[in-house]
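Action item from last week, closing it out:
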Amino acid sequence: MNRSFDPLTQRRDERAAVIARAEDYYDQGSFFANLSRLVAVRSESHDPQRVPELGAYLRHEIAPMLMEMGFETRIFDNPLPSGAPILVSTRIEGSELPIALVYGHGDVCDPQKGAWRSGVSPFTAMAQGDRIYGRGTADNKAQHLINLRADPAVALVHALASITEARGQILIPEWRPGTLKPDIRAAVAELPVGGGWTDIDHDWGEEGLTPAERAFGWNSFSILAMQSGVPDAPVNAISGKVRATCQLRFVVGTDPADILPDLRRHLDRSGFERVQIAATKAHVFPAARSSPHHAWVRFVARSSTENSGQPPQVLPNLAGSLPKDVFPATVWIPHSYGGCALRNIAGLFWDISSRGGVPA
């Protein structure tokens, strides 16, 4: 099935998804639970004895939320002896982007305990109807909680979205191979790709390439699995952890040893320093490719044509996690498709033995 991608529609969908997630954060009770924790901190600015509480509010509540979002955070002492400390956090996603400045204060005024109903504490958040009562719920703890509360799943989704664009084109420069040369393009030009149950989406992948060039000459990134919380038994709270299993299928020109370091640099450049990455396998096979003009390739192609009565479809490289690199690099025999018919192999062995030497 072919799919067409409309960037404007995609942006609208992403915007709607972000808003829906924010509404869920409130509707499912997570906002109230987190706000209750902030309200419980007696950060009274009028009482000099509460200055330590003001510092604890920044260190133990606000700073951790900001660091989860990838902010660099510093807390400065107030030059006034009776003043509260000041927290400054920055996150730079791109020097060319506009600056968003968010201000908030964590101190509250006199709790006026005598003005509260019996049994109700100004430092215990209480929901009543469509209102939430508690010292600081309106000014200013709820406001900066709304501005700052991070959802790790949303952060990871954006990190993954920075790897490819909407149609699957890889955006990490180091992951884009420079080995799709004219001879490889010519070799795969006539190869059949898709059809029947193996049909592919012609609108997916690197724009400007044919389906065969994408399949045999280019890298592809995919998300194999992703989980946040317990999908089968969700609770009314945002999970503190999210994990995704991803895969990069790569061709010659991409060094397996560079894949994760390249990804790390990309995520750091994009503001996702807190996203952790790790390899799922201890060993990754290097990609391998034989030149279509190699003497052995031409020799085997001629032999196969004589054996089968029709020219073979020569693939410069195969997919799959196999030690294919051993054959052209060590044994000096280009690796061939393992599904060759017995007739072809028997004829090939005959041609090799009857030739009595290495083809030139």
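Closing note: The chain has a mean pLDDT of 82.
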